Amino acid sequence: MENENHNIEQQIMNIRDKTSARMDQRILDDLFGRLRESETPKPAIAPAGLWRMIMNSRYMKLAAAAVVALAIMLPVSYGAVKAIKKYFKIAQNSVTFEYSEPNGSFSYMYSRGVSVASTDATSEQEARAQLEEFLRLYQEGKATEIEPGVWRATLSSGEEFAYGGNPQNLKMEFTEEEKAQLKQQTDEIKELRKAGKGERTFWKEIEENGIRMRLYRVRYMLSNGQAVTICEGEEAK
Amino acid sequence: MTNEEQLIQDLKAGDREAMRLLYESHKDGLFTLAKGLLDDASAAEDVVHDVFVSFVESLQKYHINGGLRAYLATSVANRARDRLRAVKRHEAKPACAEGSEEFRDTPETQAILQEETHRLKQALAQLPYEQREVLLLHLQGGLTFEKIARLQGVSLSTAQGRYRYGLEKLRSMMSR
Fold first, then answer.
1. Which residue in B132, B31, B43, B126 sits closest to B91, CA to CA?
2. Does the pLDDT of residue A93 top 70, yes or no?
3. In chain A, residues 25-54 whose CB comes closer than 8 Å to chain B
């Protein structure tokens, strides 16, 4: 029986499915394109997890709600934390720029935030303390990447704290310098948008307060070579 | 510096040849793993695509920790599971979806579809997902049982047990 099992193990190890030339071409083309993008210098103000929303001003309230919801979806603590009881939103910050255009006024909102999924925190204050302790442990090199993009550290309470995303990007407040750079970037995006120079793809539909919105991802190439993808929303017909 | 560390460094510097080398070295292994987990060639293709893209996007924060092969195999397993969950929600997949005509017609695939391997694949597809995952991640992805246990959120002995039961079931199915 042991021999038979060994044979099966060998057979499984020997299975080799080959990718097709078409698949190779498709993936390599995509990877080379992305490699070029990652070579371009990125301003310090555009970390992963920073969401940009552009919405008609009529939906300012909705935009704010949506941004918060989106921010929660990003750097959320991961499934390695068992029996999650509560989520706490920590330090949601946003900065908004408004522009008047002939067909209405538009708001560009940049939002940053994180949520903590906790097994034992009973308040936002406790969740914030856990997050801060995790970040300290991460900076001290005491967190380990348990899965691609998922970091874990053991808190002093003994709880395992997991964080999905890049903890280095977890800066809570927008500085004045960041705001100035974002304004400059937004001025350029606004012009590109006006000129229709963006690759727009449908993302998903959401509903808030009885209003259905269709969200799109639009990719703009800035003059400094950086590619910026923003989320754009419009009322669903 | 190991070859792998050098490769990562070159990738971080935007070296296209390093990217090609990375892809060529891992594509078949990851595709085999994804196809074994999903039993669907088109879905496996998408998963492999996503895994490489996601790796490139997170390249700057990647640190060697347990080897690139294991890292990529883990990514495939995570995405395969997400995909299966989504499929379960939206549609019932046929048990032996084989994928596109183009895939089926390649000479390599014809060779793969030799009787014994084909039977083994069919038998694998009939195993409970957790058992299939342990077998494939260990034998195809090169992951240790400790890593697989962590990935599945179970104890080491459970992961090893799933491996043993999986092998036993395969043996029984193959001997029919």
1. B43
2. no
3. 26-28, 30-32, 34-36, 38-39
Please report the residues numbered 50 through 69 in chain B whose beta carbons come closer than 8 angstroms to any beta carbon of chain A: 52-61, 63, 65
- Residue B154 token pair: 């179970």
Q: Which of B35, B75, B81, B33 is nearest to B56 (CA)?
A: B75
Q: Please state the length of chain A.
A: 237
How many angstroms separate the first and last alpha carbons of chain A?
65
Mean pLDDT over residues B31-51, rounded?
89
* Rounded CA separation A177/A181 (Å): 6
Considering only the beta carbons, identify the residue of B74, B139, B153 that sits closest to A148.
B74
Entry pTM: 0.48
State the nearest Cα–Cα gap between A44 and chain B, in angstroms.
Answer: 14
Question: Going edge to edge, which strands form the sheet with A86-101?
Answer: A86-101, A104-118, A51-56, A227-235, A211-221, A199-208
Beta bridge partners of A87: A117
For Cα atoms A41, A45, A49, give the angle at the middle one, nearest 5 degrees.
100
CA trace torsion A167, A172, A177, A182 (10° rounding): 80
Alpha-carbon span A169 to A135, nearest angstrom: 11
Question: Does A80 score more than 70 pLDDT?
Answer: no
Per DSSP, the three-state class of B17 is helix
Q: How far, in Å, CA of A70 to CA of A113, rounded?
A: 9
ipTM exceeds 0.90: no
The phi and psi torsions of B144 (rounded to 5 degrees) equal -75, 165
